[in-house]
Fold each of these.
Amino acid sequence: MTLPTFILKNAVRNKRRATLSVLSVAVSLFLLVMLQVALRELTNPIDDEGSSLRIIVRSKVSLAQPLPARQLQTLERIPGVAAVSPFSFFGGLYKGDEKFTSFAQFAIDPQRAQPLIADAKVPPEQLEAWKADRTSCIVGKLTADRYGMKIGDRLQFTGQFYPCDLDLRVAGIYHGTADDRNVMFHQKYLDELLGNPGVVGTWWVRAASIAEAPQVTDRINQAFANTSAEVRAESERAFVLGFVSMWANIKTLISGISIVVVFALILVTVSTMSMAIRERFRELAILKAIGFRRRDLFVLILAESFGLAMLGALVGAGGAWVLFHNININQLTNGLFLVFEVTPQMMGLAFAVAASLGLLAAALPMINVARTSVVQGLKTLD
Amino acid sequence: MALPINYSLRNALVRWRSTLATVLGIALVVFVFVLLQSLAAGIERSSANTGDPRNLLVVRKGSTAESASLITRQTLTEIRYFEEIARNEKGEPIISADVLALVNLPRRERGGEANVLLRGVTPRGIELRPQVGLVAGRWFVPGKRELVVSAKLAKRFDHFDLGDTVHTGSGQFTVVGWLAAGGSAFDSECWLDADECRSTFDRDMYSSFLVRPVDEAAGERLIQRIETDRRFKLKVEKEVEYYRKQTMTAAPIKWLGGFLAVMMSVGAVFAAMNTMYAAVGARTREIGTLRVLGFRRRAVVTALLVEGAFLAFFGGMIGCALAFYWNGYTTATMGFETFSEIVFEFRVTPKFVAEGLGFAVAVGLIGTLLPAIRAARLPVIDALKSI
């Protein structure tokens, strides 16, 4: 019998315990990976080239305060501004939804917004049809698939923030943006429904180049300083991060809780795994008596607990990886999460935790083995 | 004959070193469960105990939140003199047309920015909300740009001390008072004069009406009368009902609490099982002896189950104690309905403590069941022979 087979035989001789240990490591690492992904998705906005070029201009008072439509001319004249479009969050309830609709509807100007939605892939004839029909819209592929929307369908939205309801015809279906869920329709249609109040929700600006984007933001802010409608311009990324900051203490609390969760499970697992070795104290003493050196015993103990922990990591973290790659998280969480990406760093962390868990579980028995004499060990009954 | 309970309890405690991790593990499971539930309960309570049962709240049909509602000024003049609405001593109808505005303000100590809900109210609006009182300073003077901020928000936001000036866009307000609202949703609001609010934020419309009907029956008639009138497109409901329904913020936290508790308890059950298998293994001879003495299988199983349940209960107590430390702690997050910062307190209720303990005991029992059955099934002779 070679040493590896000896270790293997030892590890699985109490099959029940080995299974329980592996499973509890797996559960804790699965949770660790899942909480990490959730936190990252909630606090880290998508970062692509387009989102650093695009700037959102909102009222300095708050997002809920509309901006005057006349600001368009001033915005267009600002150097470094490549395109400007109204960008009004309609926030309506889709027909059938009671309290919450998982996708947003934005009123924009299809002509002006062309460079802003350049990454949205729409067949040209659909794009033209949308531009031509004031009461039509384009729908993101995720939303279209989810609700089974087809071209030509009519979509009804009940206004929550706006005192009007929408009745839109689907002119096209787009994909290829960072968030393929939104419905885009004509600002003109919204204006008509409201009786042309001469306001927009926010402005959507595209800077000429990434290098110039920060200056453009500053210029926009300055252009409206000391006017009756002061603005706050910021990159799309900064805008989204502003939302994250509003979550306040909840964010800290949930990350704190994740640590507690993982700590609790690790604690429990370490204790059970070292129990397995503690119980074999007599055997270890015998091995010592027949001439195994201390070092050999260390290898024996370490290899066993390390192996079990790694197997647990494989099942737990690997399971999370496979699972999250194969489920439709958007549908499952009703739009709370768009993607649920397990990054290599998280897998690395999970395996690092497993490794230290294996070490920790082996540490206590190892110290005991080193300390106890053969005679004492043979006397141990537990 | 049953084994004395003392046998189980002392057995659980005598191996405290090896069971410590299990106890602590269960303690943390219960801690997380109770803490998240009390957090959700705090958020729910902050809106559920809001309002006066006699009041009716009028908002636009279709808007799920008061802050998103818009009602024309003409509607006010039409509804104002409905006879179902009570009058005060001066003969004025008790109706308050409020204007809600959301302003983005900086937190203290560079804690980023967050939205704060401003409520423009009339003197009637203050009378209609007896929960709200001043704790410092004075009320705003109508016609002046003065602001009364929530004392709880004042601890969190910059320039919210008495005498400070709050800048919002082109508007400036002097903070003249601090209000407190007994842990209700108004504790997350700042109040100012309705007309000043309208002019500063360029609003032509009101957000909501709060009315006091003459009596219960008149209230029913008023709801009928306004809701069936096609011109208005308004929704009327009891103020308390409206606030009770604001559960969107708490729901995901509740869900998370439940989910984590279930996932963690799976791990805890594995651990408890391992601990109890080890306990049974170490006491094989002892159990054999008990059987020889005449204790039945059932008695042995029961004794072991009591032992496991006791361990878990002990862990649960520690978890609840840890969670109770947070009881009453004030914190804040963004409310989904109002889209503004809401302040609330952790509320560890007896219900959650009971649920947490029940949960712990369940984990203990499930974890012990299989080891206990194994112990009971051991043939007596084999058990006695084992070392």
Amino acid sequence: MTENIIEVRDLVKHYPVTRGVVFKKTIGHVKAVDGVSFELKAGETLGVVGESGCGKSTLARVLMNLEKPTAGQVLYKGQDISKLSGGALRRLRRQIQLVMQDPYTSLNPRMTVGDLIGEPFEIHPEVAPKRSRRDKVKELLDLVGLNPEHINRYPHQFSGGQRQRIGIARALALRPEVIVCDEPVSALDVSIQAQVMNLLEKLQAEFGLSYVFIAHDLSVVRHLSDRVAVMYLGKMVEVGTEDEIYERPTHPYTQALLSAVPVPDPTVRESKAIIRLQGDVPSPVSPPSGCRFRTRCWKAQDVCAQEVPLLQIRRGSDHPSACHFAEKREIVATHEAA
Amino acid sequence: MSDPSTASIVSTPPATMPTEAGSGAPTNAGLPENAKKQKPRGLLGDAWRDLRRKPLFWISATFILLFVVMAAFPSLFTSGDAVNGALGRSRVEPSSSAWFGYDVQGRDVYARVIYGARASIVVALLSTILTLLFGGAMGIIAGYRGGWVDAVLSRIADIFFGLPFVLGAIVILTTFNGSGTDNGEWTIMGLVILSLTVLSWPVVMRLMRSSVLATKEADYIVAARALGAGTGRIILKHLLPNCLAPLLVYGTIMVGSFIGAEATLSFLGIGLKSPVVSWGIMISEAQNYIRVSPFLLFFPSAFLVIAVLSFVMLGEAVREALDPKLR
């Protein structure tokens, strides 16, 4: 549990905004991810939460080396993954895999389940000899709770939850060490969400996987995560263990997010204070100076506009928080930790 | 699709099918064959199983096979003379001795229709295949690479797109096949095929480019890249099968229009020339006598329509078979 399997250092990903067709002029940058650092330990689950457009999916893409970072590093066991190419990159792909958000678009509609899950073996022929591949695919189907007899079916013959299981089986095929889950359950029904999450938990115990689990649903993240990172507008605002974030949040944004989680118990609901944030998320092209949350924060003062609050442990708190005025606040227990 | 009447059609020509499925659906050539030969099935295997159960496929394939054999061995179908006639029989109506009658020059229309299949089928099929291959490849490159490659290829395509079809063909063919030149039958056919291809590939390229653009950002392509798939695998296994449908439809329609285009060029005197026979030449000759001897127009047109319909139906059947959701 002590070894860092992935280390992210000051990761920055900016997308240029261009104008003009023939003579392209860069008129600005979308600062999708702007200085994110964290580490992932072997066998650990790191939950990443944040609202739409805060850079979660971009973070996943950079972690998967599908996009090159503008600055900063992603280290896999000390190796900078964005500098890898050719054979080294192929070997890395075996270790880090991706489960995508939408099970309806992430499977090629013209491939059978056998071909879909077997594709990793074709791309990395050294993993399994040709003759054993068919059996491996069946094993994987069995592992994720699908009928191995359905190997010749096409994705459209399955339900959303079943398709997501196919996606998970495909990610598992190469026996990776890390799986980046980019909102793997947000497109599914609540009852199916639980099944898929339980499956992910079971697989983690079985294979010692590490997850980077991206979601916008706090309760989903709590169910799975050892540690949780809260993102806002390309930056991490608070990182801590599950208890630290859910029971003792210190950043106003985290507090606002938690207060919005529905409470099933009507008697408790009465006593719950809801923090309503004003306005919208500012444009990532020109984020506010200083603290990015200050435009919507009820605690904002002059210092927030001038100084960028660092993600560090502050007085009266036990985990890093990027707020000049970080302090605990009574949040009604949202629900049972699952 | 599994009623008993289908079964009887299925059993008719069993051994000959694989060869002409290849000739009827040329665009499949780019699809990788599934190496695995045992019980596991892939898209192509499933498509073939599906096709075998479709009467429409068997009917159209039989006709196409018939036309191909006609083009290759016309003497199997007729012993008549397609080139020499006797003026005394000029425009004699169909009868039991000459089923389709005789044309203005007293030549046997039946023999000419049979012999005309070769030029029409060869020109139409080859130019369709070439157009699909060339335009498709350009479209994939432009769509997949994007950026300046796309810009350059698209502008080149626009230049060819801007040439009016007849004018462009006249320029190309009068340069290489003007009056006074003495090119052989196959050289002229090659030139006609070439000019048809050169002037129609931009349409195919645009079709392909737009489907590639729509598909290449799809999640399953991202997933394949995350698995470490190379460009070749992504194009062959993911892009092509998902972008092929519009091309297949357009290709089958193109076969018909190319038979007509070949006729137009022959009519203008820059395509195939007498004594070479083609359906297009026959139709353009017959139109002067449409009121007095309509049968001269009817028989070559009927063959043309049947050929075009067969290709369209085959294309439709193949397209449906390649889409798992339509099975």
